[in-house]
Design a protein that fits this description.
The protein is mainly α and 159 residues long. Helix content is 85%, strand content 0%. This is Dynamin stalk domain-containing protein.
Amino acid sequence: MHFNARLVEMMDRFSKKLHLSDKFSESFLVEEVKVVEESNRIFSSNFPPHSCLLRKKVNNIYSLPLLVVKEVCGYLETVCVRVLIDHYISYPKLLSSMRKATHKVMEKMKLEFSERVVEMMEMEKTTHYTCDPDFIASWNKLTGNRDVFMLATNNFKKK
């Protein structure tokens, strides 16, 4: 087993899928102009139209990182089980419990990785908004009055 080489192969396949997922048709500029025109009707000046293009591209590749996590974790689990079998072949009573424990740990790790990937993809969708200085100024203004709002809300509940 050449773990690093396999991991590089998986990442190369992911990179190729990622580049292929952003399908460029001959009329891609026309499609982008349509998105910009639609977004001008939807968004105000605080949300520039190119954010729609970014969100559309992120939505197009949304499932790919989750597939990579699944593939890498599956391969890692296979490697771990093989190594455990090699080391515990002389202890058949321990082998089954070690295999179950490995599967359990790998499922937990896969779930945590998947949640983190989903979190990162959601952050990518909103990054453009949060990089806008006007958005940050508005956010700070609104959150600056949060304590006053919470105090007023709590006092209202008590009455």
